[in-house]
Every structure is written in structure tokens, then in C-alpha cells.
Amino acid sequence: MAKSNRMVTVGAAQLGPIGLNESRGEVVDRLLTLLDRAHERGCDLVVFPELALTTFFPRWYFEDQEQIDRFFESAMPGNETQPLFDRAAEYGIGFCLGFAELAEGKRYNACILVDKSGEIVGKYRKVHLPGHADHKPERKWQHLEKAYFDVGDLGFPVWRAMGGIMGMCICNDRRWPETYRMMGLQGVEMIMLGYNTPATEPPWGFEPTHLASLHNNLSMQSGAYQNATWVIGVAKAGREEGCDMMGGTLIIAPTGEIVAQGRTLDDELVVADCDLDACNHYKNTVFNFAEHRQPDQYGLITETAGVKLPPE
Ligand code: CDV
Fold this sequence. Notes:
Blueprint: E1 7-14, H1 24-40, E2 45-47, H2 65-69, E3 72-73, H3 82-91, E4 94-103, E5 106-114, E6 120-125, H4 145-148, E7 158-161, E8 164-170, H5 177-184, E9 190-196, H6 209-227, E10 230-236, E11 238-240, E12 243-245, E13 250-252, E14 258-261, E15 268-275, H7 280-284, H8 289-292, H9 299-303
Parallel strand pairs: 1-2, 2-4, 3-4, 8-9, 9-10
Antiparallel strand pairs: 1-15, 4-5, 5-6, 7-8, 10-13, 11-12, 13-14
Bound molecules: 3-methyl-2-ureido-butyric acid.
């Protein structure tokens, strides 16, 4: 029987570690292998992680701008990424790809949505940049996203693609309810996101692995449920240049339930059939925004970034 055009078979393409000196060509070959597997398994859409073409370079302090810029793409597709676009179009598979973008002198932690014909139909630039802007030699690992990237300037757009309403965000964005709600208010039905999350040493201090994993699931499951949307969270995993990265790739239904999850810390394709009509029930009932939200009462959310304490 033919698949309904509201059923999207998604391949969450987790990546194992990428070495500092691994070339774009070598990485793209790994992405192509995952794409081949996705084709064999009947996927319509493949989601790759944040900064999927290189190692997670903000963990190092580089003084020289040229050393930083080698991790950035100034064209998308470029020579090295073109084969990914070609193979995906040949298979009729759409994909979401995270990469470092150099555009008009600005540097973004970005991702794109490519449709089944190989056209870029959406772009997102990461808004919530974690970490620090200054070198912290006392830290075992740097987290220099605030130094190497500009804050995303595209807001949280959504696009009509793959038969539904699709949105994207990147890594730390997944911890913020505003991210999901901005897309929820535009009727999003599937949010794709990739992440690079250390298993024990986030920039805010030591955390046991079980908490890193709890917070990963908690954020994405609540974002899915409270906005009645699918969430596809895809990890870069394993020991990358000595730093343990959390896996935990998840496909989450609009009920908040996990329907598929990664089992390894390596390149792995996690597949699920995602019925976009499964969003309808909660969008029309408990989270019928038009009927139940009270935006007049939410002023503080856009008035202030920090906490406004009550008077003493
Ligand atoms: N790449 C990220 O944005 N990582 C952040 C933390 C761990 C710095 C995250 O929220 O997972």
C-alpha cells in the first residue's frame, strides 16, 4: 500500500566522533553511508547532527582566525558537500544538515533543510549560544561558541515541506521552552535538531552522565508534548578527541513518548515512521493555543532576559 503523504519515515543519523584532522571528504563519505542505509530502510528524511561536517571545534581555543575559518563553509552546497545533495536527490530523500556557516563576514552555527529534489528550502541559525567568549585555560575543554559564532538572526521560522510544517533548532536551543513555542505558534509538526553535548563536562560544571541524559530527554519530550509536535534529536556521540560526547539520539512523538532511540555511541541510523496527523489531537484539544493561551499575561517573557525579582 502507498504511504500517506502525511507519514514521514525519518532516519535520525547519529554520528560517532569526528577527529580534528578528519577531512570533509572523509566525513561526507560517512554521511553518504548513512544516507544509503536510509534509502534501504525507506526513509523520506534524514536528520544529521549539529556541526556534522567537522569535529566540535569550539572545544579548542584558536588565536588565528584562519585556523577557525577552516571549520566553516562559505558555500552550501560546496565542492565537498555536493555529493550529499546529489545522492539524496537521486534517492528522493530530504535532509537536515548542521554546519558552521560563513556568510557576509558573519559566522553562524547553522542548519539547512533540503527537500527531496535537492533544493535548500529552509535555513536556521542557532540563537542560544552556550559557553563563553574568552579563553579559559583552567578548563579541560573550552566551549567557545560565544567567541566563534554570531547569534542567529533568522528567528525560529518554519517551512511547508515533506507534506507538513517543519522547523529546526540546534543543540542548546532544545533546553529553552521559547524555542519550541515560537515554532508551535506557527503550527510546527516536526522539529529537527542536532546536538554536541559532553557526557559529563558541560560548560556549567561537572554533571553525572545520568543527569545529562535526563535533561536531554526531559527538554525534548516536554517540547514535543507541549507543542504537539514530533521532535527528532540527533547526537554527535562517543569519545571525540578525548572528550566523551553523549549519545541518546531520540525520535519523540507529539504525545511526548520516545518512539525510537539510539543504542550506540557511533554512526547509527535510528528510524521511525512519523505520522504528522498524530499532531492533530493535542493541537485541537489541550494545546489549542487560540482557545487557551493568554498572551496578555506573558509580557515578562519578551520584556526581560534575566530574572526580575519581586520588591523586598
Ligand atoms: N553544542 C551545544 O550547544 N552544547 C550545549 C552545552 C552542553 C554546552 C548543550 O546544551 O548541549
